[in-house]
Amino acid sequence: MVDRLVIILFLLHGASCLDSLRFLAVGDWGGLPTFPYETPVELAVAKQMADVTNTYHTSFNLALGDNFYFDGVKDVDDKRFKETFEHVFHYESLMNPWYLVAGNHDHNGNVSAQIAYSNRSERWNFPDYYYALSFKIPGGGVVDIVMIDTVLLCGNTDDDVVGDQPHGPSNAKVSDDQWSWIDLQLQSSKADFLLVAGHFPVYSIAEHGPTDCLIDRLKPMLYKYGVTAYLSGHDHNLQHINSQENGKTVDYFVTGAGNFVDASEAHKSDIPSGTLKYHWAEIKELGGFSYLEVTPNNMTMTFVNGRRTPLYTYTLFPRK
What whole-number distance in Å separates Cα of residue 225 and Cα of residue 25? Predict the structure, then answer.
């Protein structure tokens, strides 16, 4: 396991774009295993991600898991890399870096092949099951992003059981090693904005609901170390949940509408009362993704739908 992969990037897209760090996040975008290999939602999201990148000169994209429905890929030569990724996200503007984590459907297949594909594609950056990123903010400051594998931490789910919880890690040592690594990354970060990105949500009101394993072990770390926000997918909609504990606030953003849209609110009563700030699941609007912009003074997160309509914007401030 790589102890820490640190990637320092400056925006070099022209003077008009040097005032902020800009990037996109999308989850659950993984197409179909049979012809036509993509969904109308995935096609619309890809087009709008490209248009937003053209307009705002975003630097990179975070892919939050379930990169290939329904059973991942078999090997590094699997045709799904072309059918679901290269042929859909083919726009020139989306040739910028992609940073990925694996989801439950990816773990049904060969995640090591997805990692190996990093050697086949200049834009596909998946160096290990979990890793850390660090980006400089134009004008001063740093954003750290801790990319985690929630399936290795918590175990996989049964796709045939609605709302199934992870069944526990298949390898306890691998899980414990990652927990220790996460604690070290969060404890040592001095970043102005500290994000954690994984597939399973901590909190969600939708089909799968909160993830018990992450509630038990990740959530206390988020508050202890002053994490700015946790980004996830898994549930196929857009959500913002803002929760305070012991005077500290963490924002939870679910961005899982890259391929399907599911309007379930089955777990609305399973998150702390009053913490849900936004929920969206309109299938006719063709999915959605997140646009994030960071300056030395604040970070804004905007949900955008598959018709490029800004849906909701929220502002976060530097860690104290």
Answer: 23
Q: In the chain, which ranges are E strands?
A: 21-26, 60-63, 98-100, 124-125, 131-136, 142-147, 193-197, 229-232, 238-245, 248-255, 276-280, 288-294, 299-305, 310-316
8 Å CB contact between 256 and 236: yes
Q: How far is CA 216 from CA 31, 152, 203, in A?
A: 32, 15, 12
List pLDDT tens digits, range 249-274. 999 999 999 999 999 999 999 999 99
The whole-chain average pLDDT of the chain stands at 94
292 Ramachandran zone, left/alpha/beta (phi>0; psi -120 to 50): beta
CB 24 within 8 A of CB 67: no
Rounded CA-CA distance 296/306 in Å is 29
Homologous superfamily of domain range 15-316: Metallo-dependent phosphatases (3.60.21.10)
Q: Is the pLDDT of residue 18 over 70?
A: no
Q: What is residue 2's predicted lDDT score, i.e. its pLDDT?
A: 40
For the chain, which residues make up each domain, given as ranges? Answer: 15-316
Tens digits of residue pLDDT in 227-241: 999 999 999 999 999
pLDDT of residue 203: 98
